[in-house]
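Why this split exists: single-chain examples teach little about how molecules sit against one another. For that reason, every record in the complexes split bundles all components of an assembly together and asks for one structure covering all of them. Below is a record exactly as it appears in the raw files.
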Amino acid sequence: EVQLVESGGGLVQPGGSLRLSCAASGFTFSRYWMHWVRQAPGEGLVWVSRIHDDGSSTTYADSVKGRFTISRDNAKNTVYLQMNDLRAEDTAVYYCASDGVAVPGTNNFDYWGQGTLVTVSS
Amino acid sequence: QSALTQPPSASGSPGQSVTISCTGTSSDVGGYNFVSWYQQHPGKAPKLMISEVSKRPSGVPDRFSGSKSGNTASLTVSGLQAEDEADYYCSSYAGSYIYVFGTGTKVTVL
């Protein structure tokens, strides 16, 4: 059974930092791209970042570029999101999602974790 | 990276059909056959319902179907059931490994 379990969310002050983790199981993690997607309270889904299966390529939404860094440790089956210079508008539930596990090919978010809430407030 | 445009709401009676549109540009929806649709119940994580415009992942009922014409993609739910009441989001690849979601549509089963 595929499982994605996020952790690391919490309350942080504006300008602060937080690192989210997403532990994967039930599939060969090192073969698949991974994404982070966020959802502000009462709002829609917003794609945040993607990382290639071997970590060699990463991309970001303009809203987080230069502040967030996605990385992965294939030995630990874990993807990370380092978030720096956090702003109130970064407040959201952050989901990790796999790409290509359930559906052959790429550019789909096929399995999702339960999400972890990040609140940026003083 | 502007969000794709979806109607805020849609509704239908049990057994009826409802179609949700997702309008983008030639740089996203119109440029690639990588449009996917997600169902999200309150307080839950999204679930992939349609991939690559019209492909149904294993386990998704065949009541769900997808299509695309030009810069607009559509999701149709036929034979509406109570459990279909949820928020639905489209997503599209936008080139250079960038992705964009739609604004979301709340489907109500009357």
